């Protein structure tokens, strides 16, 4: 079910759409007491624009419009609606006062002030038509976000007491000393093994909130890169090996893993091992499965020692292993 919201169209009967568009430049951010929803029409002011889980119907004097996309206006505490066909950037006064202290004293000046947590204010002054606007003076996205309270270290530090900040600074210093482990490992493992360490998990959390992730622990932790494919070709046996190993000894054994039976062959001279699964340990079955390893392990140029094979097969007969 779609929600329904209202906002004043701010229009005058004698004003055409083009005149109204010229009256509201894209760099204006309006603070409207007649609106119950935040709507931004300038895409450059938003980031992380996405399709909302539930669309919304917005009613105004001109009719109804359905909005389906939301985005984030800097670090404004809640997502705002994006209307690409809109003609104004509107913040609802009712929504703004939920997060910020807003004052207006007409005995001093005709303006609305939104007070930020760091002590600064955002000033909305009336235009010549009487709408209260905050004029953005830069066209760069980074500067556009400045007025929407991007968190700095100073802003984040204001949330904590001086004692908490001191402990957080010591936590970050200790993290650097012990070769910059990740914050989770630092809290869950490293601190527990440092006897008498005054640093707590909360100190590490505050350090991450104020200073951000430890850059030293992030560097070098890159994703695995693709490895070149392995060739499946069979290379000939080098002549020096043929000259040295004219007789080849092959050892065999049967072993078990997770109740599964495997046949292992090992060439002592070449130090080459093969492993193949067995359905049972009957001697004919073992001999049949011994042919492929021998074919791949012993080239035609080598002469195998059948006595060694026979001895190991006899030792691996049923009943000789548990």
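^ Assign residues to that structure.
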């Amino acid at each position: 079910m779609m929600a329904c919201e209202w906002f004043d169209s701010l229009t005058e009967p004698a004003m055409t759409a083009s005149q109204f568009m010229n009256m509201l430049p894209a760099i204006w951010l309006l603070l409207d007491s007649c609106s119950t929803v935040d709507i931004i029409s300038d895409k450059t002011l938003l980031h992380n624009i996405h399709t909302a889980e539930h669309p919304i119907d917005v009613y105004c004097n001109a009719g109804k419009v359905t909005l389906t996309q939301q985005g984030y206006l800097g670090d404004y505490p809640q997502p705002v609606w994006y209307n690409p066909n809109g003609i104004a950037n509107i913040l609802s006064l009712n929504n703004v006062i939920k997060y910020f202290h807003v004052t207006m004293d007409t005995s001093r000046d005709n303006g609305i002030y939104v007070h930020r947590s760091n002590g600064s204010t955002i000033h909305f002054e009336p235009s010549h038509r009487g709408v209260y606007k905050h004029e953005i003076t830069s066209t760069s996205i980074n500067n556009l976000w400045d007025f929407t309270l991007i968190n700095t270290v100073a802003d984040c530090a204001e949330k904590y007491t001086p004692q908490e900040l001191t402990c957080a600074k010591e936590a970050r210093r200790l993290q650097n000393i012990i070769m910059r482990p990740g914050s989770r490992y630092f809290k869950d493992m490293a601190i527990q093994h440092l006897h008498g360490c005054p640093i707590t998990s909360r100190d590490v959390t505050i350090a991450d909130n104020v200073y951000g992730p430890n850059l030293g622990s992030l560097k070098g932790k890159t994703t695995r890169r693709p490895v070149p494919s392995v060739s499946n070709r069979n290379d000939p046996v080098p002549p020096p090996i043929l000259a040295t190993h004219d007789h080849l000894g092959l050892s065999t054994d049967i072993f078990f893993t997770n109740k599964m039976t495997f046949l292992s062959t090992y060439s002592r001279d070449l130090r080459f091992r093969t492993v193949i699964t067995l359905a049972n340990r009957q001697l004919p079955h073992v001999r049949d499965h011994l042919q492929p390893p021998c074919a791949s392990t012993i080239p035609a140029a080598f002469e195998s020692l059948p006595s060694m094979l026979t001895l190991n097969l006899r030792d691996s007969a049923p009943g000789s292993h548990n």
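The chain has a mean pLDDT of 75.
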